[in-house]
């Protein structure tokens, strides 16, 4: 007994120290949300749902509306569609000849980014053939803010870039570097995660994390009863696009009386399996919510191995989930964080050098795959590896489908 | 050095020392306050805490399932033990697991006839990696920390190159059944999972190996390579075999994980540190020369019990890593303390006065607060 008392006292003391330390360093990860309601409430950090520092009612409402918005452009080319909004005049950038693009990439450390990276390179080939882009120099920051800042500064110093394309690693930390790129007077295109400056010629992104959270939580609420339990499997903390997904979903679960418990998994299937089997040992689980579909199969298998009823589940448009979903026939939804957005920055560059106007904030469609559409997407992506994303949007590009099947990256 | 922490543990009992001190009960209780024994107490305490949180966990079939799922980390902990007790580190374990898992996924695919050849290839890769690690460490004289770190990077890069970051998919269910199913219709526990069978077989093998001349030489080499060399041990080959044992344990863990978890490049990520933590928790001394192989396995199971306990206790996800880390540090600190204050134990647990080799007094006299330590009620 003395052992445990000693142990828990020590644990509590150390935990307190560590946590206090965390509270002060955490600010670097606090992005985007310093607007209005939640500013300055450090004490409430990390609370759930609407109290979370990642939650912002105005953005939530905006994205909620955008889910039903009309998109301009050809629905056959979703990567060029956008919600009608302020357009940026690019006449001053109009010039002929092949241009050099400089791409500062956050990383290719997950299957989603890898799939997009493959698509982007195939799109590049097309534009090179059309003599729009001469070459694209890419620097990969390997998920590190400092590396990416150095990468952007390197591009600026080198002075050979005709256009900067930036996929920021994190929002707040990358803002000054993006500003410096803007200050060169060259066009700057930012995509995926955002920054806190609107100096970029265009900021390209799908609707966003709150829309994902609303789509998925609404689906689960609609298929579950009040008081049912949902296990939320989250990849990692601190990334705004992921945190926003959970903040929105958690808020809805709370409002609708769904009991939700969340875990960080690192997308490791072994970890996911342990978590689910522990949860099933504790009691029934009726729903699974994921902030990204990577590892979904392990979650479903944990139910199979335990002999439990399959849950209502939201995954992602990753092939592994779509396949397992089809095989098990569970009640599910595949939300989409449109992977085809990786084509858009290069196409935006083409427009910019042609002097065509582009949306200042280029909001791409983000439509979940429903059970009715599942087989269509499975058929269209037959032979693709498990880590491929169904809405990758590169079917008309050279090298399709082999390049994606073999995941050939430069 | 010898005989202090290990005299209790049958596997590492030295023949040169007197066979026993005191009765079996006394030796058993005395053993519990050594770091290698304390980990079993820790595991039992954690187990009791888990059962208290969720009584269903105490049912035999649940326990068996739990042990089966802990099998991969218990196996790599034993593998890491061989390397650590020889005075080295193996940081390539996670990458070896990932390589094997991806190999299984990509090479076997849905073709049952390929299971055997690919299995042989996987084992060959395991041996090769261990051989390279061992030879670079011993013959080239590069610190094992660097060698195995380099191996980890090389293998991770290879996996990334081969898969483009995403594996093709899971291999055939027959191969996965090694990690996912077991012997059916067993009385009481219903299903005896294969991973548990593999774990038990490997544990018996490991204990046997450590009692063989090889095991004795390995510990002697870890304790003092020069004196081991002088007394006739081929140090490079002794250590290299430890590296081979380690990468083979990663290979076996990989085979099990293909079934348990599925094919994903992230499988195995961080396992080298889990294994090292488990080994340290098991009271094995970093730097080599002391420790019991089963304590390493018990350390791994204790770690997994802790994970489950946090799940059952619904510790918020944002807190989890902190709580886990703090408990691990506390546990290691405690077991170290328990060992050092072994001579302040109540009479019943103390070594007999007649002990020809009295416990080494602590280098620094224990502070006054030492009386609060674990062994004192």
Describe the structure.
- The complex is a heterodimer of chains A (410) and B (377).
- Chain A has helices at 2-25, 57-66, 111-129, 145-158, 171-183, 209-223, 240-255, 269-282, 296-306, 319-328, 344-353, 371-380, 402-405; strands spanning 71-72, 82-83, 87-88, 99-105, 133-140, 163-167, 188-191, 202-206, 229-234, 259-264, 287-290, 312-314, 332-333, 358-359, 361-364.
- With 410 residues, chain A is of the alpha/beta class.
- Chain A starts with a helix and ends in a 5-residue tail after the last helix.
- With 377 residues, chain B is mostly helical.
- Chain B has one domain: Orthogonal Bundle (ABC transporter involved in vitamin B12 uptake, BtuC), CATH 1.10.3470.
- Chain B has helices at 24-32, 35-53, 60-85, 93-108, 115-138, 144-163, 173-180, 194-211, 213-223, 225-230, 235-260, 271-281, 293-312, 317-340, and strands spanning 182-186, 190-193.
- Chain B has a two-stranded antiparallel sheet.
- The longest helix of chain B is centred in the N-terminal third of the chain and has 26 residues, at 60-85.
- Chain B is globular.
- The two termini of chain B are 28 Å apart.
- Classes of the chains: A alpha/beta (410), B mainly alpha (377).
- At the A-B interface, α1, α3, β10, α8 and α9 of A face α3, α13 and α14 of B.
In short:
Chain A is an alpha/beta fold and 410 residues long. Helix content of chain A is 41%, strand content 15%.
Strand content of chain A: 15-25%
- Strands of the biggest beta sheet of chain A: in what spatial order? 5-4-6-7-8-15
Main interface by residue count: A-B, 56 and 53 residues
> What is the residue-averaged pLDDT of chain B?
83
Morphology call of chain A? globular
Counting DSSP E segments of at least 2 residues, the number of strands of chain A comes to 15
**Average pLDDT for all residues of chain A:** 87
User: Cα-atom Rg of chain B, whole angstroms?
Assistant: 21 Å
Order of helices and strands of chain B: HHHHHHHEEHHHHHHH
Q: Would you list the SSEs of chain A in sequence order as H and E?
A: HHEEEEHEHEHEEHEHEHEHEHEHEEHH
Largest sheet of chain A: 6 strands, parallel
The radius of gyration of chain A is 22 Å
Measured by DSSP, the beta-strand proportion of chain B falls in under 5%
Spatial separation of the terminal alpha carbons of chain B:
28 Å
Distance between the amino and carboxyl termini of chain A: 60 Å
What is the CATH domain class of chain B?
Answer: Mainly Alpha
Low-pLDDT stretches of chain A: 1-46
Low-confidence stretches of chain B: 1-9, 350-377
Number of strands of chain B: 2
- Domain module count of chain B: 1
Q: Which range best describes the helical content of chain B: under 10%, 10-25%, 25-40%, 40-55%, 55-70% or over 70%?
A: 55-70%
């Amino acid at each position: 007994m003395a052992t445990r008392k000693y142990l828990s006292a020590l644990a509590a003391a150390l935990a307190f120290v560590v946590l206090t330390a965390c509270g002060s360093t955490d600010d670097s990860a606090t992005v985007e949300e310093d607007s209005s309601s939640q500013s300055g409430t450090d004490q409430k950090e990390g609370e759930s749902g609407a109290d979370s520092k990642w939650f912002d009612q105005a953005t939530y409402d905006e994205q909620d509306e955008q889910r039903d918005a009309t998109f301009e452009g050809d629905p056959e080319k979703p990567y060029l569609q956008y919600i009608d909004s302020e357009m940026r005049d690019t006449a001053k950038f109009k010039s002929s000849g092949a241009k050099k693009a400089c791409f500062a990439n956050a990383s290719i450390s997950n299957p989603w980014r890898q799939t997009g990276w493959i698509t982007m390179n195939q799109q590049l080939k097309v534009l090179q053939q059309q003599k729009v882009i001469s070459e694209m120099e890419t620097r990969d920051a390997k998920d590190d803010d400092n590396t990416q800042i150095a990468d952007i500064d390197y591009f600026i110093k080198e002075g050979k870039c005709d256009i900067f394309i930036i996929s920021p690693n994190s929002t707040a930390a990358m803002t000054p570097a993006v500003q410096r790129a803007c200050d060169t007077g060259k066009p700057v295109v930012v995509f995926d995660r955002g920054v806190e400056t609107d100096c970029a010629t265009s900021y390209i992104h799908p609707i966003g994390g709150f829309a994902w959270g609303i789509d998925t939580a609404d689906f689960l609420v609609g298929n579950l009863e009040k008081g049912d339990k949902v296990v939320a499997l989250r990849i990692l903390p601190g990334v705004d696009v992921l945190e926003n997904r959970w903040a929105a979903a958690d808020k809805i679960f709370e409002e609708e009386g769904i009991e939700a418990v969340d875990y960080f998994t690192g997308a490791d299937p072994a970890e996911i399996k342990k978590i689910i089997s522990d949860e099933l040992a504790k009691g029934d689980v009726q729903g699974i919510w994921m902030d990204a579909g990577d590892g979904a199969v392990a979650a479903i298998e944990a139910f199979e191995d335990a002999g439990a009823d399959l849950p209502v589940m939201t995954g992602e448009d990753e092939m592994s989930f779509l396949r397992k979903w089809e095989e098990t026939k569970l009640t599910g939804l595949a939300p989409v964080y449109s992977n085809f957005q990786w084509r858009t920055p290069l196409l935006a560059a083409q427009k910019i050098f042609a002097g065509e106007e582009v949306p200042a904030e280029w909001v791409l469609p983000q439509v979940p795959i429903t059970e009715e559409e599942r087989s269509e997407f499975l058929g269209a992506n037959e032979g693709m590896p498990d880590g491929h994303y169904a809405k990758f949007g590169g079917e008309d590009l050279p090298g399709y489908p082999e390049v994606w099947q073999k995941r050939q990256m430069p | 050095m010898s005989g202090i922490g290990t005299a209790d543990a049958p596997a590492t009992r030295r023949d040169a020392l007197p066979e026993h001190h005191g009765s079996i009960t006394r030796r058993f209780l005395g053993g519990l306050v050594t770091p290698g024994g304390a980990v079993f107490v820790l595991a039992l305490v954690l187990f009791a805490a888990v059962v208290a949180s969720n009584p269903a966990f105490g049912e035999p079939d649940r326990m068996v399932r739990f042990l089966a799922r802990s099998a991969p980390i218990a196996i790599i902990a034993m593998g890491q033990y061989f390397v650590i007790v020889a005075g080295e580190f193996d940081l390539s374990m996670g990458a070896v697991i990932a390589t094997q898992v991806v190999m299984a996924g990509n090479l076997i695919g849905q073709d049952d006839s390929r299971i055997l050849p690919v299995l042989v290839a996987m084992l060959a890769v395991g041996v090769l990696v261990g051989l390279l690690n061992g030879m670079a460490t011993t013959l080239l004289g590069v610190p094992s920390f660097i060698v195995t770190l380099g191996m980890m990077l090389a293998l991770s890069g290879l996996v990334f190159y081969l898969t483009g970051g995403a594996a093709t998919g899971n291999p055939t269910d027959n191969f996965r059944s090694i990690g996912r199913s077991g012997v059916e219709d067993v009385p009481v526990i219903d299903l005896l999972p294969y991973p548990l069978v593999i774990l038990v077989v490997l544990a018996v093998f490991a204990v046997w190996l450590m009692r063989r001349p090889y095991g004795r030489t390995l510990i002697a080499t870890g304790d003092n390579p020069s004196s081991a060399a002088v007394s006739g041990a081929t140090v490079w080959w002794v250590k290299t075999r430890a590296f081979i044992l380690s990468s083979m344990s990663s290979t076996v863990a990989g085979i099990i994980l293909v079934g348990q978890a599925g094919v994903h490049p992230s499988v195995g990520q961080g396992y080298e540190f889990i294994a090292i933590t488990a080994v340290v928790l098991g009271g094995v001394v970093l730097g080599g020369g002391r420790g019991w192989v089963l304590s390493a396995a018990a350390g791994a199971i204790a770690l997994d019990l802790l994970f489950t306990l946090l799940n059952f206790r619904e510790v918020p996800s944002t807190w989890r890593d902190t709580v886990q880390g703090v408990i691990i540090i506390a546990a290691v600190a405690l077991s170290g303390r328990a060992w050092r204050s072994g001579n302040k134990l109540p009479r019943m647990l103390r070594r007999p006065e007649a002990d020809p080799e009295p416990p080494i007094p602590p280098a620094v006299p224990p502070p006054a607060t030492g009386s609060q330590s674990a062994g004192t009620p």
